[in-house]
Amino acid sequence: MPGRLTTALHEHADIIDAIAAGDPVRAENECRSHVRKSAEAFYRYTRARDETLA
Hints:
Elements: H1 4-20, H2 24-53
Helix pairs in contact: 1-2
């Protein structure tokens, strides 16, 4: 998952910024977005790995 670590770090920073700004709605949205993007990246990774092993 090239680049995912850097992207995740930026997503975490966005979550922290929302919390620091006292914006719980934005913080929740940022968290949900981060989890969704992480799950999608993991799915793509496992699918590509499975195709390579097949």
